Amino acid sequence: TKYCNDRIAKNGLSSDKARVLCLDYRDIPPEKTFTKISCLEMAEHVGIRRYGTFLRQLYDLLDDDGLIVFQVAGLRPAWQYEDLTWGLFMNKYVFPGADASCSLGWVVTQLESAGFELKNVDVLGVHYSATLYRWYLNWLSNKTSILGKYGDRWFRIWSFFLAWATIASRQGSASVFQITMHKNLNAFHRVEGVNTHFGIHATKQGGFEPVV
């Protein structure tokens, strides 16, 4: 938090323009609303029991014409035995209580039930596997310092986790979904968002003209 706020000040912005706070999401003042909200792989850690409450809070924090980027990790719905084992391993050793890594269909249902309209959905699991693989290599390359600070057990658990996470994301057992959405209100200016609705814009390589 200090590092980020120092960077903000160094770049000439006052705290009323930009600031980083370290606090529980439930402590965000309810009277404050935002034009943009980014929720990056947090919802799965909120848990299934609190998922609906969390989404209602997001809804209340967002301006009526605001946008949310909602990124969440998930598992495929037609699970194989190894997928179930993967989820149980993570819940016991890596992310205790993070039981809301669910399928895309489940996530979409929850978002729509909370009053959001989805604008765009990207399934980024295969890209995330590349990131995870680099985390894995970085972890192994710092073995000596990690052992000295956290010990052998912690090093082995995370070595195994990052290796398995790379494979799981690459073979489809796990994925990460990035969803752009807004409130599902009649008055929302949907036409103004056409230019940023990237999913409907064809590429030149495909021989199609962009939608205008």
Features:
212 residues, Rossmann fold, 2 domains, alpha+beta
Q: What does the model show?
A:
Its main location: membrane. With 212 residues, this protein is α+β, with helices and mostly antiparallel strands. The protein folds into two domains: 32 residues, no CATH class; 151 residues, Rossmann fold. The chain has eight helices and four strands, in the order αβααβααβαααβ. It has a four-stranded mixed beta sheet, sandwiched between helices. Helix 4 runs antiparallel to helix 8 and helix 7 packs across helix 8. The protein is globular. The mean pLDDT is 89.
List the helices and strands and how they pair.
Layout (H helix, E strand, L loop, with lengths): L1 H9 L23 E7 L2 H4 L1 H14 E14 L5 H14 L9 H10 L2 E8 L1 H17 L1 H8 L1 H20 L2 E10 L29
Parallel strand pairs: 1-2
Antiparallel strand pairs: 2-4, 3-4
Helix pairs in contact: 4-8, 6-8, 7-8
Order of helices and strands: HEHHEHHEHHHE
Instruction: Please give the radius of gyration in angstroms.
Output: 20 Å
Beta fraction: 15-25%
Count of helical regions: 8
Low-confidence stretches: none
Describe the strand arrangement of the main beta sheet, using strand numbers. 1-2-4-3
The level of helicity is: 40-55%
Distance between the termini: 41 Å
Number of domains: 2
Q: Mean pLDDT, rounded to whole units?
A: 89
CATH-assigned fold name of the largest domain: Rossmann fold
Shape: globular
Q: Could you describe the largest sheet, including whether it forms a barrel?
A: 4 strands, mixed
Q: What is the name of the CATH superfamily of the largest domain?
A: Vaccinia Virus protein VP39
CATH second-level architecture of the largest domain = 3-Layer(aba) Sandwich
Total DSSP E strands: 4
CATH class of the largest domain: Alpha Beta
The SS-based structural class is alpha+beta
Pathway: Sphingolipid metabolism; Lipid metabolism; sphingolipid metabolism
Subcellular location: Membrane
Membrane topology: Multi-pass membrane protein
Organism: Exidia glandulosa HHB12029
